[in-house]
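User: My collaborator and I are trying to settle a disagreement about how two of our proteins should look. Neither of us wants to argue from intuition anymore, so we agreed to look at predicted structures for both before our next call. Could you fold the first one, then the second, and keep them clearly separated?

Assistant: That sounds like a sensible way to settle it. I'll keep them separate. The first protein:
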Amino acid sequence: MASRMPTDDPEGVAADAEALARMARGDESGLAALYDRHATPVYSLALRIVRRPEDAEDVTQQVFT
């Protein structure tokens, strides 16, 4: 089974672009939208790499900081 790339979802790409535009205008809701959309896969990947939930949480926070 082939993995899906983020660019396979044009609506998601557009939503991310809008969220980034809001962040550029200083609107914190943009970051919240990106976090809501991407935090789970970021955390899952981090957990597979570091193998400790506490460390994976730290990595996820650093990614979005």
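The second protein, kept apart from the first:
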Amino acid sequence: MRAAPLAGAIAVSAMLVMPAACGTFQAYEGSHKSASEVAVISGAAKLRATTPLALVIRAVDGKEVDLRYSSVALLPGKHSLLIDCQLGGDGATASRHALDVEVAAGERYRLQAEMRPGNRSCERVELQPS
């Protein structure tokens, strides 16, 4: 009988980590471009053992990204990202990471965290092809 309350607690924690992050932020000026003209970078949200982990894109090239976006669409080339690594269901920032990346048109990428021993914080955040 304990499995149901534990499953409910895990589900609620996962929902708190990703409040409404589902859209893609257009991180370039002008009209919408096709998928073959832009690169898309996606954050991450998952459960590691019993600890929720979220990699939240907070800024691209100095432009703030609202929390409702879980991914960003960028023109090809070099970009600077600011990423929050959040652990636990309360959405608290465990660490903030600046990344300089180069992306290609038509490609999809995802953020991935390398954890410190004990899984209490992110050692580093990297960009991986999807």
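Some points you might bring to the call about the second protein. DSSP finds one helix and ten strands in the chain. Helices lie at 3-17.
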